[in-house]
Design a protein that fits this description.
By secondary structure, the chain is mainly α. The chain has helices at residues 3-18, 25-32, 36-43, 46-67, 76-93, 95-102, 118-135, 141-160, 166-180. The protein is built from 9 helices and no strands.
Amino acid sequence: MSLRAALLDAAYDAAVTTGWAATRMADVAKAAGTSRQTLYAEFGTKDGLAQALALREAARFVDGSEAALTGHEGTPSAAIAASTEWALRVAREDPLIKAALTDDSAGGLLPYLTTRSDQLLAAVTARNVEYLQSHWPDLPVDDLAFVADTLVRLTVSHIVTPAAPADVTARQIGHLVDRLLPGGETP
């Protein structure tokens, strides 16, 4: 395991067990078996560590979401609905997301899903655009970028504040995809 992975694992564990606001860089370094200086050299600040943790977890989340697409590649709406349902179900059980959603104190992780989520949203959106382009190359690129960004933001919104069961929300988002992507449906 790389040093960076060990540091991120230690940060994950600290965020889940003590909450991000109470997490100290010294504790993360100690749990990873390294010095604070090494931790700071790798991430710069606690904010940098939080951002790196959010991006790593988002990449893992997208990997799982893409795996959930297998067998649902008939239309973009079917694929997105399957992916969204998986994401919503997993998010409701993920310890780090639960920790972020329940710790709304100053210095918590919630802003990395909401007001400070620019890098996270951009990374997940880019992965979604790549997937959609690879499976439906005839879809307009400009539309894909807009739709992917909209769907990512909508899914995050439903993770933060669920409005309905995951399957219902996923189905509704699938219908939205049909309306947003011209020619997205298979005849």
